[in-house]
Amino acid sequence: MENNKINQSELKESKELALHYMKTLVDVARESFLILDAGLEVISANSIFYQTFKVEPAQTEGKFLYKLGNGQWNISELKKLMEEILPKKKVVKDYEVKHDFETIGQKTMLVNARQIDSVQLIIICMEDITEKEELEEKLAEHAKMLEDKVAERTKELGDRIKELESANKSMVGRELKMVELKKEIEELKKNHKNGNGHNGNGKNHNGNHKI
Fold first, then answer.
1. Phi/psi-derived region of residue 200, left when phi > 0, alpha when psi is between -120 and 50, beta in every other case
2. Quick one: CA dihedral 71, 73, 78, 82, positive or negative?
3. Residue 69, by phi and psi: left (phi above 0), alpha (psi -120 to 50) or beta?
4. What are 146-156's pLDDT values in tens digits?
5. 2-128 adopts what CATH topology?
6. Pairwise CA distance, residues 195 & 75, whole Å
7. What b/e sequence results for 1-17 when a residue is b if at least 16 CB atoms lie within 10 Å of its CB, and e otherwise?
8. Residues 149, 157: contact at Cβ < 8 Å?
9. Which of 68, 12, 23, 24 minimizes the C-alpha distance to 42?
10. What pLDDT, in 10s, does the model give residues 37-67?
């Protein structure tokens, strides 16, 4: 019995010490943090959590996780993380949770959690990636629009090139035809000139027939 009391006392001291270190670390963090006990009741939260989710310590500390914000934290993805995944893995990284909160609207969070069995504490870090996700969606939309415009412009240029190639072939064809016609004209001139050299009638310069 005495050993049991000593163990309980040591556990309490260890838990208090761990809690002290955790609070010190999360208070200077840039992400939202919650520290829970083994029963999923909130022991502490950092200032970023209160700022992000627009709540006060009195509405948070000592409250069951799923009852935070009038039940707004009763989220199926979060329950799966806390009740199925974390107890087995003890550490979970970048678990995505999406939820539409009454006070702050639609949020997308990357949740990192660690279950520390030795002191019966759970620490949860929530990174709000809503703006980042929205920016990525906008960039994807702009990229798609740009791709469409490039494809449209490429098609226009391709059609124009075909028109120019067709016009060029037509011009080359006409030039070749002109060259052929010029050759024919030159041949006709030459033949006509040769024909006039004999006066075209088989007579000599005196007009008499050749003997």
1. left
2. negative
3. left
4. 787 888 888 88
5. Beta-Lactamase (3.30.450)
6. 108
7. eeeeeeeeeeeeeebee
8. no
9. 68
10. 999 999 999 999 999 999 999 999 999 999 9
How far, in Å, CA of 45 to CA of 63, rounded?
A: 11
Please tell me the predicted confidence (pLDDT) of residue 138: 67
- Mean pLDDT (whole number) for 4-24: 73
What 3-state DSSP class applies to 56? coil
54 touches 42 (CB < 8 A): no
- Provide mean pLDDT across the span 103-107: 89
Name the band, by pLDDT with cuts 50, 70 and 90, for residue 125: very high
**29 CB-near residues (< 8 Å, 6+ apart):** 46, 48, 125
Specify the higher pLDDT residue, 49 or 158.
49
Whole-model pTM over 0.90:
no
Q: Residue ranges per domain, the chain?
A: 2-128, 130-199
Alpha-carbon dihedral sign for residues 45, 51, 54, 57:
positive
Give ∠ CA 140-145-146 in degrees, rounded to 5.
95
Q: Rounded to the nearest 5°, which phi and psi values hold at 13?
A: -65, -45
Q: Pick from 62, 82, 66: which is nearest to 74 by CA?
A: 66
Quick one: DSSP state of residue 208? P
